[in-house]
Amino acid sequence: MRQPRAAWISASVAMILFVVIAVSIRTTGYFLFDAQLSSYMSKRVPGDYVSWFTQLGSGVGAVTMTALLGGLSYLLWRDRIASIWYVLMAIAVGALNQVVKFAFVRERPSLNELVGGVGYSFPSGHSAMAFAVYAGFLVVAFRHLKRSGKVIVSILTCALFLAMGASRIILNVHYFSDVVGGYSFAAILLFSSYAFIVSHRKKGVA
């Protein structure tokens, strides 16, 4: 994604999705099949199988992965601006997501302190951070990898942030709309900031 126009379009789509979900939660308390899906997944998949995985999106896990992937991107491609953007973007997503939670004060389907299931529910901080960390790295990688590398990294990173979101529903600490809301919130910041950075880099560098 080298063109800022494509990034702005992606950010706009994410904004529309986030607003639709937010309005539904404000007016009805739920979005689509929130309660049904949370109940179904939490009963069908044992939480023990995913509780370890959800730690990757926790505070310590997210910070560790952001530092590792940010450092890796610089070592591999020596793209200083992209690496700095990646780290700052992830930090911004984590901080601002907490602010947005207090604007909605939505209660969780259940509380579970052992897996970070405390505080308000919407949008999911674990899901937002997973999207920022892994989709953000994918955006940086796309600038430098060949086609085969892009396919492999795309599969791995998408699987990671999707599995992270699913784990939050399976553990019954978030609704479906919390997870999608977390993804879309992170996507707004990720794509809009990327578009801004790319549009201001010198020709031949971006």
Brief overview, please?
The protein is 71% helix and 0% strand. It has seven helices and no strands. The chain has helices at 4-28, 34-44, 59-77, 80-104, 125-142, 147-170, 176-200.
Please render the helix and strand layout as text.
Elements: H1 4-28, H2 34-44, H3 59-77, H4 80-104, H5 125-142, H6 147-170, H7 176-200
Helix pairs in contact: 1-7, 3-4, 3-5, 4-5, 4-7, 5-6, 5-7, 6-7
Notes on the structure:
This protein has helices at 4-28, 34-44, 59-77, 80-104, 125-142, 147-170, 176-200. The chain is globular, with a radius of gyration of 17 Å. The model has no long low-confidence stretch (mean pLDDT 85). 39% of the residues are buried. With 206 residues, the protein is mostly helical. The termini are close together. The chain is 71% helix and 0% strand. The protein is built from 7 helices and no strands.
Describe the structure using short key phrases.
about 210 residues; about 70% helix; mainly alpha; globular
Over all CA atoms, what is the radius of gyration? 17 Å
Instruction: State the helicity in percent bands.
Output: over 70%
Number of helices: 7
**Total beta-strand segments:** 0
Strand content: under 5%
Please summarize the sheet with the most strands.
Answer: none
